[in-house]
């Protein structure tokens, strides 16, 4: 019997999830259509330069999803499902600390980590875990009720988890089992028609709309799906022209004349979706919940730890100047700060050790018998190598929190006089049962491999640094 490999399972799952979400949230289909139009226009206008950070085929097919779960047990089960698709947990994001409003979750992203697998299909799922033991959000009584509610539900059928374990172990599934796995997996993330207990949902909603979305229902669902676009500012303009209400801004670095770095994101606002609601007297009535939205992203170059420190410093400068000049557009402030302090070319980023690249010997490199320099910056400047940017595959906690916050109906409640519960990547690794990988290590490894290959090709006296 024919078998389906992990990456094909991943691609099929992403495509089916997209179709399902488009049926549930028609504005998402509009977002995908406009993204495709923008990408085609950018490709016509810029030619090969438009594909500097990924082929148009990859960019057009690319998606990331977002889901939310309530307990470490549910998170471990999610990890089994995504493990079947060749996706591993990468990065630790504490959204509690990244937002001024109540967003009581910590998160990771499940994604492929191998370069070949990313090129085949880079599907990612940003996965958030509720933190009911953080006393800033939940008092002892509400925490007890919430944990009991979460413990009593089952998000994923045993058959799905068994098929997932088989796919992870064998790195493929027979065609018939693959089809069954895909149907069960997509169904697990569909919006449930089961009535929502209105009183319980509203109790949690007073703390946080995110908490209510996770712990106020007996199932999970895809919270948003995100296509990738080559010009996010043009996408924002076209969506607005079509009458789609967008959030107030594009999160992340500003639009500027220099290289695109890290990640820029925006979304249309969460829509009022009809939901069956059970009232305290047992009646079922039609209500509406605003929890799901359509996000879009533009990906740039991965920054090194030093580059990321510079990015964070520039954000702080923008915050300070925006507070001092409340009438000036934040985008204009950010653009001016970036153009003054951020290197304005890929070569300058590489020479300063601020961004990650893969390096390749140039065919027209010097052939006069001279020895090459040992640093990437000088190798580039003297024409020995070319540098190809490594795409940022991960997320920014402040941007993610900003998207969440922009789509919330209220600020919720948060008692900052209490000490928050500590979480970190090690805690999350234990909760998942798999190491949460450090994205910087993955990018560094990719760059290091390319420099080792350059060293062998150029035969210097020692490894390049």
From TrEMBL:
It is an enzyme of class 1 (oxidoreductase). Residues 360-380 are annotated as: Disordered. Residues 361-370 have a biased composition (Basic and acidic residues). Its EC number is 1.13.11.93. Pfam families: HGLS. Keywords: Dioxygenase, Iron, Oxidoreductase. Its cofactor is Fe(2+). This is 2-oxoadipate dioxygenase/decarboxylase. Belongs to the 2-oxoadipate dioxygenase/decarboxylase family. InterPro entries: HGLS, YdcJ_bac-like. One of its GO terms (molecular function) is dioxygenase activity.
